[in-house]
User: What shape does this take?
Amino acid sequence: LNAVAMTVDTRARDIDVAGALEEATDAGLLSEDPIRGYRFASDDIRRIVYHQVPEESGRSLLHLSIGYQLNGRQEVEKESDTRIILLINRQLNTGAGMVTESKGRSEIARMHVSAAKIAKQKSAFKYALGCLHNGWDLMLTEDNKWDQNYQLSVEMAELFIELFYITKDYVSCLIWVNELLRHAQSLKD
Assistant: This one.
């Protein structure tokens, strides 16, 4: 437990996850499954460990760290692994409030777009819209998201339009069409 709690006190990208996992596995708190990865030995242990992490910033940093670690794994073919993209998206979204720099927020917003596309392919339209709203909200803090992240903003607007049309929310669809037209830099957009 101390290894997990101590790692949360460091910055999200600097956590020694491998060391903490090894220590927790040796202590019998985790088991390693070659297919599913690490798992807590029981739900009770999972709950106890999670409640050892400080409520506000600690848990957010933990989720953010998990998301960054998963996103950075070279052996994961993220483009074709639906499950891992959605897991990364959930973890980064939970910790997104801790990210203050524009580049990091845009990076997480891009993960939301990937998750929204996957959800759309699976006909999970409400989930896809939720992902897009979360990504868009991350970019709200920027002075002008259209200037700072034009391609990402266009991609998100087009996906909003498509999803609102599919779900027959024509009013929202038209709002996004107008938003896109107002900011479009070319006819192609």
